[in-house]
Amino acid sequence: EVQLVESGGGLVQPGRSLRLSCAASGFTFDDYAMHWVRQVPGKAPEWVAFISWNSEYIDYAEFVKGRFTISRDNAKNSLYLQMNSLRTDDTALYYCAKAKGDLYFEYWGQGSLVTVSS
Amino acid sequence: DIQMTQSPSALSASVGDRVTITCRASQNIISYLNWYRQKPGKAPELLIYATSNLQSGVPSRFSGSGSGTDFTLTVDSLQPEDFATYYCQQSYSSPPTFGPGTTVDIK
Fold this sequence. Notes:
The structure holds two protein chains of two kinds. Chain A has strands spanning about 5, 10, 20-25, 35-40, 45-50, 60, 70-75, 80-85, 90-100, 105-110, 110-115. Chain A has no helices and eleven strands.
């Protein structure tokens, strides 16, 4: 059974940093690309970042470029999202998702809530 | 970026009803269209990928069709667990984008 478990969310002040982690199990992690997707409650999901299976290809949504960094450690079956210079409009539930093809999302974690507020 | 729209934004239905949701892309996305169901308080789950391919484990009452810019999701014989919000999403080009959602509630 595929499991994706996010952690690292919380309340943070604007301008500060936070690092999310996603622990993957139930599939061969280093065979698959991964994504981060976020969702404000009551709104549609919004794609944040993509990383290929070997980290050679990385892509970001425009609104996080230069502030967020996606990475992975295949030896630890883990995905990460380093979020710097956080803004109040980054407040959302952040999901990690296993890619199917490159640009869609086969399995999702339960999400990690990030609240940016002073 | 490719913009996705959905109609209706909400609908009321009964168990056993047939429901159809429409999704439109702002440009030709060929067949790179996926559908998700999101139950309250849960993560989205993939139902259909590449317009009409049923994800493993998804019941056959779900079906998808379309091409180019216009797509539909049909749920035959709505079940209690299908009262949820449905999103379409294009995977033709980056950034992948979602429609605003269609909420199906109980009549």
